[in-house]
Amino acid sequence: MGSMSTRRIKVIAAACLLLGFLAGIGVSKITMNEKPKDNPADIPRRAVIITINQSQREELFTQTRKFADKWGYATYIAPIDPSGSHFYVDLWRSDIKVLGAYLADSGELHFGFFYTESTRPVPDSYFDEEINDLRNFISEIPNTKFSIEK
């Protein structure tokens, strides 16, 4: 009788494992086929491209920090690659975050302006005012190009 109950436990355990495996496949199919929902915090409200001479990169970072200090942003500037030629340039605060990357090959800093949280959107005029001010800071660097996409 002992072997019968051991065999029954093994069969039940195997059946549970098989059902768990099949359920996992079903869940992954559902998850993989579902279209992700757009989160307003993941969509940039504005995009900015700043083009400079590569030799002016440090001045670009200095002006970006001045802008961030004026508007109360925390700042994160760090190399993306081991060569130190490409950089993350991210600014954030409770209502707006500015996520960017400086690409040395093109001499461009690409910024996206986002809501920090989709549940707390801010008026578009906030973005416009701050981007205009960023333009003023960047205009202090000779021969820069500043473009905005809405």
Instruction: Please report the first level of CATH classification, the CATH class of the largest domain.
Output: Alpha Beta
Helix-strand string: HEHEEEEHE
From the N-terminal CA to the C-terminal CA, the straight-line distance is: 76 Å
Shape: globular
Element layout with pairings:
Elements lengths: L1 H32 L12 E6 L5 H15 L2 E6 L6 E7 L3 E8 L4 E8 L8 H15 L6 E5 L1
Helix pairs in contact: 2-3
How would you describe this protein?
The chain is α+β, with helices and mostly antiparallel strands and 150 residues long. The protein folds into two domains: 34 residues; 110 residues, Double Stranded RNA Binding Domain, CATH 3.30.160.110. The protein is built from three helices and six strands. A six-stranded antiparallel sheet has the order 2-3-4-5-1-6, with helices on one face. Strand 3 and strand 4 form a beta hairpin. The protein is globular, with a radius of gyration of 25 Å.
